[in-house]
Fold this protein.
Amino acid sequence: MQQLAEHGIHVVDSGFVRPRLDAIHLIEEGGRVAIVDTGVNDSVPRVLDALAGLGLGPDNVDWIVLTHVHLDHAGGAGELMRRMPAARLLVHPRGARHMIDPARLVAGTIEVYGAETAQRMYGDIPPVSAQRVVEAPDGTAVELNGRRLEVLDTPGHSSHHLCLFDTRARVVFTGDTFGLSYRELDAGDRQFVVPTTTPIQFDPQALHGSIDRIVALQARAACLTHYGPVFDLERLAGDLHRQIDALVVLAKTCACRFEGAAADMQGDGPGSLRRCLRDGVRDLILAEGRRQGWAGSEDDWLRIFDLDIRLNGDGLAAWLVRTERLGGQPAADSRSDAGRSTASMPTKTFGEPATSCSENR
Ligand SMILES: [Zn+2]
């Protein structure tokens, strides 16, 4: 962490749900600031405190950058924009309209979490004036007091996800594209990552490609929203690729077991597709923890990953339904990176008759 403070990069705990779950990153260059991801409305005072700790205030903020518009990243943006009159909001072209008119975003969040929980977690989401929103397609570069920040389009976790590469520090801000990495489970200095497949736009093939683009930057660190800087990016990327492939196999196996992803999509009781997926995700998390020698007990791991296990399972269900509806090209077998083994991947896409299912049993 100290290494990055030298480069003007600071981690602020948004306080969302629990400590060290949801990070807000500040990039400071000569008294001007970019904020990468915003936490939620309740995080706003923490951002102001962090700025004050740097001897700065709301007027010093030039950019608020959203890696994507899921509300654990973007929920505080409207309120921060209201308080930071010089700031512009940098957001993926597919996310921009949701910040200008959050109605659909809120509806989507209610679909995932339920109305009561959504309101309790995120509160009201104020709109951002369109004049202050800058759409950032791939290759966009902005200046922070002369420090060049470059945008990469990184679909896979969501279709409106970008990563921000700080060319001066050689640090990349990866939102959820480079997975989840909870500091309390690190085995000493050894960090780990676990992919996130949150509903509703998980796309494994795109995610593999985005991870490869992040590695190709040869950054000194990736700053994850969940949580903070990780190093040794090549090793961690390999772990992500392997786990994404395992999640795809899991999803197809569960789909085959129920002979179609439409089976009991609503419920999560025994025998439902959702239960199969969540249980499978839980088992993969436990296997990864043992493989990496995570700190704490397996009960700790399950408690820390509780929400992720549910969301990852549900995101896989959403992916199965979506790809079946589209006629199905979900397999990771056609991705371009020949250097990575795809031998364990079924070559047939989900939605084909029972022969492809039998390969998974
Ligand atoms: Zn997130």
User: Anything to note?
Assistant: Residues 155 and 161 are 5 Å apart (CA to CA). Residues 243-358 form one domain. Residues 233-257 form the longest helix (25 residues). The chain has 13 helices and twelve strands.
